[in-house]
Design goal:
Blueprint: H1 2-21, E1 27-29, E2 32-34, E3 37-38, E4 41-46, E5 49-58, H2 64-77, E6 85-92, E7 107-112, E8 121-129
Parallel strand pairs: 5-6, 6-8
Antiparallel strand pairs: 1-4, 2-3, 4-5, 7-8
Length: 143
Amino acid sequence: MLSLLAYKVIQDDLHQHLAGTLTPGTVQRELIDVASGRTDVTYTPEPGSRFVAEVKRRDTRWTRERIEKSYLAQAANYTATGPPFGVLLVGDDSGHASGYRSVEDGVWIIHHARSATEVPRLIVVGVLPIGRPTPSALRMPRT
């Protein structure tokens, strides 16, 4: 249940942020029947133009290779019927006792084609730390 809850919180935060900054009615969540699937967050600025953000949660340490192997195919597939651009947002819930990775480490662009003849898709990947304690829960170590 915690996994589903953490995933939903990431999706809710992204949806709320985009819906509050983009034209009203252009941001939807859980849109069904897109590339035979269900998108997490979809931005449709005008008819025929759709941008999809795929949201994932990861509770184990990540590398770029692991993220791409685990989630890239699904994120890229949602671009098959629209512009060749998508977003993959991964919540890093792997524990952060030793600190957090830099933002620069967690954001990159992937050029991905599903076949040799397909136009490469551009997928912007963002891995963000989640599950951090709230500031009010932080305490100084005892000396």
